[in-house]
Amino acid sequence: MSWLTDMLGAANRLLTYYNGDEKTALNPGGMTGPDGMAQNWDPCIRDLGTGLKGVGEALTSMAASETAATGSATAAAGSAAGAAGSAAAAHTDRVVADADAQATAADRLAVAADKTAVHADRVAADADAQATAADRLAVATDKTATHADRVAADADAAATAADRLAVAADKATVAADKSATHTDRLAADAAAAQAQAAAAGVNLPIVSAADAGKSLIVNPSGTGFLTGDVGLSLAQQHALAASFL
């Protein structure tokens, strides 16, 4: 009965080989880890199908046996009745045992699915941690750039302060120049006043650049001099001189 051998082998693997732990060299039947689901999922499902098929074959065989036993029981009613009761009880026990095995296999599959979900959560958490590290690195880069900007701004401020000091020094120089110019003007005004006073002592007119090329002309009263054009007639010169009086 090859189906019975296959069923027992599949049941043994479901009970003792496959498990919800991580697949390793020491635990080749593990259903989790990098290779657990990939390598053990399909064989586990096939064994589960083989076991269920074997249960069906066993039930069929048991039904045939029960039919034969019922026929034999016709000849010996008392023995047949006892045998039928025992067979029914054994059948019930086997059905219950098979149901328990199926429930256990389903529980193990659920545990494996839970472990797979936990692994996916850990992978997502690692990705979040990497993203957080990248964000922190970007923040550190921004802070470094901000510091560089501040250093540059401080340098600009220092340069501006130096420029302002230079401008202040230039203004001080200009103020000193203005003061010196004012002093020179005061001296020139004083010299001009002295020259005017000296000229008044001899009745000479005050001349300027506008008088270039002119001559001194005696004024009509004969008390002093005026500037005038030599080319004019005496009467014209006197008339011109009179216009300045």
List key phrases describing it.
245 residues, two-stranded parallel sheet, two-stranded antiparallel ribbon, 4 strands
The percentage helix is over 70%
SS-based class: mainly alpha
Number of helices: 4
Number of domains: 2
Q: In one word, what is the shape?
A: rod-shaped
Which sheet architecture does the biggest sheet show?
A: 2 strands, parallel
Write down how many β-strands occur, each being a DSSP E stretch of 2 or more residues.
4
Q: Spans of 5+ residues with little confidence (pLDDT < 50)? A: none
Gyration radius, to the nearest Å?
64 Å
Strand order of the largest sheet: 1-2
Mean pLDDT across residues: 85
Structure overview:
There is one protein chain. This protein is mainly alpha-helical and 245 residues long. The chain folds into two domains: 2-136; 203-245, no CATH class. It has helices at 2-16, 36-75, 77-201, 234-243, and strands spanning 19-22, 30-32, 215-218, 225-228. It has a two-stranded parallel ribbon. A two-stranded antiparallel ribbon has the order 3-4. Strand 3 and strand 4 form a beta hairpin. Helix 1 crosses helix 2 and helix 2 (36-75) packs antiparallel against helix 3. The longest helix has 125 residues, at 77-201. It is rod-shaped. The termini are far apart.
Give a topology summary:
Layout: H1 2-16, E1 19-22, E2 30-32, H2 36-75, H3 77-201, E3 215-218, E4 225-228, H4 234-243
Parallel strand pairs: 1-2
Antiparallel strand pairs: 3-4
